[in-house]
Amino acid sequence: MARQGRGGSRVSSGNKGPVKVEVRLKWDPSRFDQPPHHLDIIAATYSADAPYGPPVYVVHYDSRSPDGTINMSRHSRTGQGLGYVEAMTLELDRLAASFARVVVGVVIHQNTGPKTFGDLSNAGVLVVEGYRELLKDDFAQLAGSTAGTVAEFTRDASGTWEFHPMVRGFDSEPVAFAAEMGAAGRP
């Protein structure tokens, strides 16, 4: 079930729109006497023929896009490390013209018991293009959610990509979230 967060304005870098974007994720490890918190970045791609239909493919920690345009460059199962411990790169300019939309989200694995963003400390997501910050969020508005979308990239008729912040909460486990996360942006 989706919950509306803040959304909003389009951001692009000049006339060509975002080209190569990185989504970074951080969270503090659980206490030593607790099971680890495991979060993942997930990206779902949607075709120009059905931009709000089912995803063409989904990229997460143990996969990559078939054409190599969306990749996990860092992955953590515990949150241990300094700063942002997980990262996904999206090369939008290399995506085939048959794709019109990419939605990026974050999900908390529920295999060690129910956890929401409110159960985590120092969690946050950062979306950057080069050195330019497109979105920074601490998941505070998603405190009761187990998953959430953070960004949407859409391609216009001229082929230019646009960035849209899309922070929305879901009460889903990873598989269900991957299937439903793209429906949240439907006009």
Report on this structure:
This protein is mainly β and 187 residues long. The chain has one helix spanning 174-180; strands at residues 2-3, 20-26, 39-47, 57-59, 70-74, 86-91, 99-108, 124-129, 132-137, 147-155, 161-170. A 6-stranded antiparallel beta sheet has the order 1-11-10-7-3-4. The protein has a 5-stranded antiparallel beta sheet with strand order 5-6-2-8-9, with no helix packed on it. The relative contact order is 0.27.
Overview features:
187 residues, mainly beta, six-stranded antiparallel beta sheet, five-stranded antiparallel beta sheet, 1 helix, globular
Compact overview of the structure:
The chain has 187 residues and is mainly beta.
Radius of gyration: 15 Å
Quaternary organization: single chain
DSSP helical segment count: 1
* Biggest sheet character: 6 strands, antiparallel
Shape assignment: globular
Strand content: 35-45%
Q: How many β-strand stretches?
A: 11
N-to-C order of helices and strands: EEEEEEEEEEEH
Mean pLDDT: 86
In spatial order, strands of the major sheet run 1-11-10-7-3-4
The share of residues in helices is: under 10%
**Uncertain runs with pLDDT below 50, 5 residues or more?**
1-14
Helix-strand makeup class: mainly beta
**What separation lies between the terminal Cα atoms?**
17 Å
